[in-house]
Amino acid sequence: MYQLGVMHYDGLGTKEDPETGVEYMEKILYSDSPKARHLKFAAAYNLGRAYYEGCGVKQSTKEAERLWLIAADHGNPKASVKAQSTLGMLYSVSVLKDLKKAFFWHSEACGNGNLESQGALGVMYFYGQGICQNTKAALECLREAAERGNIYAQGHLVEYYYSRKFYSTAAAAAKRITENDDIDMLAKMTDCLPTYVAKGVAMAAFYLARCLQLGLGVHQDQAAAKKYYSKV
User: Looking at the predicted structure, is the pLDDT value of residue 27 above 80?
Assistant: First the structure.
């Protein structure tokens, strides 16, 4: 039933029918069957996504929040780690903005292995968002997330290296990031939101352009700088 719900909601192998997808997910979430127990967290996450996007149901950020909290289950590693990370994002940018809650949920998700939340935590530590500023903790999170493929974390490291005048390091890292600008593919590979992947690539392109324009850490090249500025 869960697979049918996903197929109908996303139009995988069948005509896209989000209303039917939502019905399947609700049946799983509110089922008393022991067979449905291990699928409840995933169903709650997907229902939250439907309410947040207003797809198959009337849009409601509050209902999305309620369902994602069920799915996240207080940080339970066996629950929906995706919901935990999504709550971190929700409390960072939406009308429900609460940076302390955002930090809590990103911490829970990161502790459960979520790559996107690890990068987000690094940024929050770096700028003191929802937590006291801690550059050491920020760099630990950002470097580990960057090594695991988080483009947003990689972009912030480029900015850090540039600001500390480690120009050759910044330029080399930025060049590696900008070699692949297929945002959708990178998002799928890393299971990170395309919006934040795009931000990471744009940051890298900007600082590489600056280095090329001013001849910082690389040979000055105005034509190449113009090319990278166009990617920002």
Answer: yes
Does pLDDT of 14 surpass 70? no
Tokens of 109: 């998700």
- Could you write out the DSSP letters of every residue in the chain? -HHHHHHHHHTSSS---HHHHHHHHHHHHT---GGGGGGHHHHHHHHHHHHHHTSSS---HHHHHHHHHHHHGGG-TTS-HHHHHHHHHHHHHSTT--HHHHHHHHHHHHHTT-HHHHHHHHHHHHHTSSS---HHHHHHHHHHHHHTT-HHHHHHHHHHHHHTT-HHHHHHHHHHHHT---HHHHHHHHT--HHHHHHHHHHHHHHHHHHHHHTSSS---HHHHHHHHTT-
CA distances to 60, 122, 135, 137, 168 from 127, in Å: 30, 9, 8, 11, 24
Q: Model-level pTM?
A: 0.90
Which tens digits make up the pLDDT trace of 71-110? Answer: 999 999 999 999 999 999 999 987 899 999 999 999 999 9
Average pLDDT in the chain: 92
